[in-house]
Write a structure and sequence with these properties.
With about 425 residues, the protein is α+β, with helices and mostly antiparallel strands. It has 13 helices and 19 strands.
Length: about 425
């Protein structure tokens, strides 16, 4: 905890992936820079230590969302995303981060015929964009994973790794400390203001005077009040089973260990852990009135019951398997589903947020962009339309809550009606808006 006054070249607020990569990469760029990381809780206590562990190359929450929003630069974004994932993998190997990083690829599973139609369409769209992908029919799907719910799937081979995210974050923390970054846990920044040529950050027990500031606070209440309407904190929940026996593993036939997500509007994601447990999460996306966040929201019995029911419907072979871990965390949903950036206070402060549930990989790219912006450098990254534009904000309460509930209800209905989207969802689609986890 920071308990006095200090100064530095760069103050990073938040010690999740975005903050950790920012601090580490800033040291790579300027080894003599004095860098401080201020974290309200402890490193990786929020989304970075609580997520599903899918480290994806996509910077845009998937190819389809990227193509729809940034058609003119989709191939650049795809290339930068793949380079970013490769760089994460090399960092993990070079620094011996023991985080179970496995480049398994990902299967999008169809649990209804309309989902297979959509996956077939996606397979057509990604063809010619450098993807190594294979469409799987019901029988071919059984060679990868066995469930009575499957109608097929799309296996994208090299663009996703599975990882233990908390261990990855702790590895990055170690690298930061070894590089000389000063890290303070239990140090919430309560106020940010300009003071002559510097920025002053007030924390609960101390102050920091910094030449530059990087805000990496994700779904938490932003220190920049005007940024708050751009983010909906949406709670997402995860269960983890006890380790599977060899016989249980054989019964589901998950030989290639790919990450899996089913393809409804409300979807589950699941993967094997290094010790052969199944991590199973997603589906419910819970928004609390007024952008409420807090530790008390990280457990939700009714969601855990629902997730368990869906798990055994997917894998009836595993009846009787116990869940040993359950948790939730807040996702920083924005209306374009992928990160956005900006600077304020004459370029002294940069921010990156809005990953909307796909930030494990993209956070490293976001950190590079923040550093480019803080250095005032024009790079391939800062020239991107994606980086230069912001999503639309969400409406104020009570309208915001109503809009979220109507959208959730409509998505649930679409899943029950062969994917048919009602007028409300079609209007959101037309406006390029939406709600996703
Ligand atoms: C349940 C769940 C499952 C997910 N699954 C996946 C997945 O499989 N793949 C994927 O790519 N993404 C996934 N995500 C999203 C991913 O975890 C995030 O996009 C990513 O971790 C964002 O990292 P971050 O550093 O920006 O945010 P965080 O990890 O949330 O870090 C922000 C930090 O800032 C700190 N902070 C906030 N305000 C202040 C302040 N005023 N002062 C000091 N510190 C402050 C917080 O305490 C927090 O530690 C999931 C998220 C959740 C919750």
């Amino acid at each position: 905890m920071l308990a006095d006054a200090t100064d530095c070249d760069l103050a990073v607020v938040g010690a999740g992936f975005t903050g950790l990569w920012t601090a580490y990469l800033a040291k790579q760029r300027r080894p003599d820079a004095d860098i401080v990381v201020l974290e309200a809780r402890r490193c990786a206590a929020a989304a970075s230590g609580r997520n599903g562990g899918f480290c994806d190359a996509s910077l845009t929450h998937g190819f389809a969302n990227g193509l729809a929003r940034f058609p003119g630069e989709i191939d650049t974004l795809e290339r930068l995303g793949l380079e970013n994932l490769d760089a994460i993998e090399s960092t993990v190997r070079e620094h011996h981060i023991d985080c179970g990083f496995e480049r398994t690829g990902m299967i999008d599973a169809a649990t209804a015929p309309w989902q297979l139609d959509e996956l077939t369409e996606l397979a057509g769209a990604i063809a010619g964009h450098g993807y190594d992908a294979q469409l799987l029919d019901t029988r071919a799907m059984r060679d990868h994973l066995v469930s009575p719910t499957y109608h097929g799937g799309l296996w994208i081979r090299s663009r996703t790794a599975i990882v233990n995210p908390a261990r990855l974050a702790w590895g990055l923390r170690r690298m930061c400390l070894e590089a000389g970054v000063r890290m303070y846990d239990g140090t919430a920044v309560t106020r940010l203001r300009r003071e002559a040529a510097h920025m002053r950050l007030e924390t609960v027990h101390g102050t920091v005077t910094a030449r530059r500031v990087a805000l990496a606070t994700n779904a938490d209440r932003s220190l920049l009040p005007w940024l708050r309407p751009f983010i909906l904190p949406v709670y997402d929940y995860v269960l983890v089973t006890e380790p599977l026996t060899a016989a249980q593993l054989a019964s589901i036939g998950w030989v290639n260990r790919q990450g899996v997500a089913d393809s409804g509007n409300q979807f589950h994601y699941y993967r094997l852990t290094a010790d052969s447990r199944i991590l199973w999460g997603g589906y419910d996306a819970v928004y609390h009135y007024g952008n409420r966040v807090g530790v008390a929201l990280e457990q939700r019995a009714q969601t855990f019951d629902k997730l368990a029911g869906h798990f055994f419907a997917t894998f009836p072979q595993l009846a009787g398997l116990r869940f040993t871990h359950r948790w939730g965390g807040a996702i920083d949903t924005c209306s374009r589903f992928c990160a956005f950036w900006g600077t304020t206070h004459r370029g002294r402060v940069a921010y990156a947020l809005g990953f909307t549930g796909l930030g494990v990989g993209a956070s490293r790219f976001a950190a590079q962009v923040m550093l480019d912006l803080l250095e005032g450098r024009r790079t391939e990254r800062t020239a991107l339309h994606m980086v230069r534009t912001r999503p639309l904000p969400f409406p104020p309460e009570p309208l915001r809550y109503g809009v979220v509930q109507l959208t959730r209800w409509s998505l649930d209905r679409a899943d029950r009606r062969e994917g048919r989207r009602n007028l409300w969802l079609r209007t959101l689609d037309l406006a390029g808006l939406g709600f996703d986890s």
